[in-house]
């Protein structure tokens, strides 16, 4: 979820919370992190080698299209920045073979020294800003609290992803 600029980070928060509500409705466990830039990324823990790139693309495209239909003035899947018209870019195209996503706790190559930082969902709100997640502040967070992604693999067993995917493929 990529807002047009740092000041519009609240668009990424808004989208993330809407996606979280939908995932909760479908009983899907999800995890969230900052991108280390101006965006937010959401993860659904899945069993390794169980789903294809096509499977996850069907799923992510559906949710991105859903958000765009609900609030076309806020969200877009348009790849070209000049055509986004100050809307949040929902990048489902990044979820395919050969594409990469920044790893948790990785520094980004920006002048602010921002870190891709896992968050607890209850901390995702309008008061957080990307500039809160610098090397010193993230190190301090790790000393004071557990990594929100620590139990990532434990979440896999209870996922209802296959049920949701089957519903999407049958519609």
UniProtKB/TrEMBL annotation:
Segments traversing the membrane: none
Leader sequence segment: none
InterPro entries associated with the record: LigD_pol_dom (IPR014145), NHEJ_LigD (IPR052171)
DNA ligase D polymerase domain segment(s): 1-149
PANTHER family assigned: BIFUNCTIONAL NON-HOMOLOGOUS END JOINING PROTEIN LIGD
Record protein name field: DNA ligase D polymerase domain-containing protein
């Amino acid at each position: 979820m990529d807002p047009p600029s740092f000041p519009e980070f609240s668009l990424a928060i808004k989208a993330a919370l809407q996606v979280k509500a939908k995932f909760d409705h479908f009983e899907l466990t999800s995890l969230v992190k900052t991108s280390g830039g101006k965006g937010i990324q959401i993860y659904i823990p899945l069993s390794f080698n169980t789903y294809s790139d096509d499977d996850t693309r069907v799923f992510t495209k559906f949710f991105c299209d859903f958000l765009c239909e609900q609030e076309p003035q806020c969200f877009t899947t348009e790849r070209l920045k000049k055509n986004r018209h100050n809307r949040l870019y929902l990048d489902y195209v990044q979820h395919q073979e050969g594409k990469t996503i920044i790893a948790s706790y990785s520094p980004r190559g920006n002048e602010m020294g921002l870190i891709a930082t896992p968050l607890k969902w209850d901390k995702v709100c309008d008061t957080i800003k990307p500039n809160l997640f610098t090397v010193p502040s993230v190190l301090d967070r790790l000393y004071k609290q557990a990594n929100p992604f620590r139990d990532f693999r434990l979440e896999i067993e209870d996922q209802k992803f296959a049920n949701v995917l089957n519903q999407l493929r049958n519609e």
